[in-house]
Amino acid sequence: MSQGTLFDKVWDLHTVGVLPSGQTQLFIGLHLIHEVTSPQAFAMLKERGLKVLYPQRTIATVDHIVPTEDQARPFADVLAEEMMQALEQSCKEHNITFHNIGSGNQGIVHVIAPEQGLTQPGMTIACGDSHTSTHGAFGAISFGIGTSQVRDVLASQTLALAKLKVRRVEVNGSLRSGVYAKDVILHIIRNLGVKGGVGYAYEFAGTTFEQMNMEERMTVCNMSIEGGARCGYVNPDQITFDYIQGKDFAPKAADWEQAVSWWTSLQSDPDAVYDDVVVFDAADIAPTVTWGITPGQGIAVNEVVPRPEALPESERVIASEAYKYMELEAGAPIQGTKVDVCFIGSCTNGRLSDLQEVAHFAKGKHVAKGVKAFVVPGSERVKQQAEAEGLDKIFQEAGFEWREAGCSMCLAMNPDKLQGNQLSASSSNRNFKGRQGSSSGRTLLMSPVMVAAAAVTGEVTDVRSLI
Ligand SMILES: CC(C)[C@H](C(=O)O)[C@@H](O)C(=O)O
Ligand code: SF4
């Protein structure tokens, strides 16, 4: 059993009691909600005549269904309009802060909370969304929950949970040129498997993460869940504190010093005990691309689509399903695969630094003929900051479309959808069958700069040959 890790400390500090089931009743400091998983939870509250216990601890935004072009109300999509109205109504009824479109604060739930300083070290954070693991980048214990648990948090500000084990995932060394945080997490999942983290919280440690900025750490923690770990975190350090300082909800004046010393005390102890430790070398990580239908089916961009015999027995069934669905041949290089659509955005890679990297790369280049490439900022603030820096102009001159903030083609619950079996190079986090809006649409996950490289060449390209 783990001991002395940040996870243990934060867990213990938020434990209300032990339930007869043996589960912990855990206090949830911050509850984030969006339009997809909250309506039923509010309906369940109503059925039981319950109120929201601490409305000030719940923050709402709208992200999944948001159109990124025409945002006029009512939305053209009737279902989207209904979800929007349901959320507006529930927030009003229960006095919950709602960051609506046009407020300047709307965006993907996992982008807006960190940028407003709501996400802080040592907190427990829950949201009816699997990528809530993102907030662990700050040294928070943060995880996705289901709709009935959203109800529980609304009604009691607590959850009944079994404690997770802790695996230290250590990566050491500097990343090579053309290799980004996204490649690190794709590499980890490729090696540990999409189910490898089930039952674990991942503590990302080692010099590679120590050198990362907060947005890079968020990219890594975001995809913990794709490796099966409901929660992933990085111990808070000076980089974390510098990022938070001055943000809207950051502690101010005398509270700041106190907060920093408290946050520091939560770091995993040097002699902490882990349930498991795995170690990777950053020098082994290349620009990584998925070729299949799970985020674990990744290869270095200069490798070939794995032959069945190169895979462990347990992976062959899903691999054969993947070759068929992806229309890719085992043993063929992934490089040179033609792409139809290039999507830059999502809660994995839709933050300002992602857009800065892409703009830096795309400046003076042009999207290849026949390729549709578009950039969707993760939030209204990201959009506004990017425009203040002129990034929108760089994108547009390079032939990328520049859109309004939202989840967009990460999940395609809005009008941004693949058509037929189009192949997409995507900076998002899931390549499941049909994920991007067409039941035969195909997704290759990669870093945002690799997506931009695919956009300008029209095919999967090793970005290292272009920088
Ligand atoms: C809609 C929501 C419940 C879902 C999630 O939980 O992650 C979505 O955000 C996703 O990325 O698939
Ligand atoms: S951007 Fe994608 S992964 Fe993130 S919350 Fe939206 S749909 Fe889910």
TrEMBL record:
Source species, domain of life: Bacteria
Entry keywords, A to Z: 4Fe-4S, Amino-acid biosynthesis, Branched-chain amino acid biosynthesis, Iron, Iron-sulfur, Leucine biosynthesis, Lyase, Metal-binding
Enzyme kind, highest EC tier: lyase
Name of one Pfam family that matches: Aconitase
CDD domains cross-referenced by the UniProt entry: IPMI (cd01583)
Oligomeric and partner information: Heterodimer of LeuC and LeuD.
Function text: Catalyzes the isomerization between 2-isopropylmalate and 3-isopropylmalate, via the formation of 2-isopropylmaleate.
Protein name from the UniProt record: 3-isopropylmalate dehydratase large subunit
High-level lineage: Bacteria, Bacillati, Cyanobacteriota, Cyanophyceae, Acaryochloridales
Gene: leuC_2
